[in-house]
Amino acid sequence: VQLQASGGGLVQAGGSLRLSCAASGRTFSSYIMGWFRQAPGKEREFVAGINRSSSGTSYADSVKGRFTISRDNAQNTVYLQMNSLKPEDTAVYYCAAGQLSFIRSEPFRYDTWGQGTLVTVSS
User: Under a CB-based contact definition with an 8 Å cutoff, are residues 55 and 71 in contact?
Assistant: First the structure.
């Protein structure tokens, strides 16, 4: 599978953005999908994950209640709806696919990565 992330941009604090990650190939539904982010000078961190059937999701504590991950297996796409954005959410956001048994937060467990999309939140 190959991944293409989009939807980043500049937004004021308190605003919203929706990221999309389009996957190529016919095996998208077999992957656990995750969103990660990396701010300048910081390590890549887990943001959210979703299982194959969308019956299970997981979020970093820092985004719980503000971000929502979803997927459309028919469209081979995973989304990240980001509301109530804060300046500390500024980062490059990456989608990732993993052939995993359940959602994991460690970046190294994911096999395939998108190119990243920059989200900048101004105060």
Answer: no
Torsion on CA atoms 50, 67, 122, 94, rounded to nearest 10: 0
- 76 touches 97 (CB < 8 A): no
- Token pair of 105 as six digits: 């937060």
In this predicted structure, the answer to whether residue 25 has a pLDDT above a threshold of 90 is no
Task: Please say if the pLDDT value at position 62 is more than 80.
Answer: yes
27 vs 57, residue with greater confidence? 57
The answer to whether the beta carbons of residues 107 and 92 sit under 8 Å apart is no
Q: What is the mean pLDDT of the chain?
A: 97
DSSP string of 7-75, one letter each residue:
--EEEETT--EEEEEEEESS-GGGSEEEEEEE-TTS--EEEEEE-TTSS-EEE-TTTTTTEEEEEETTT
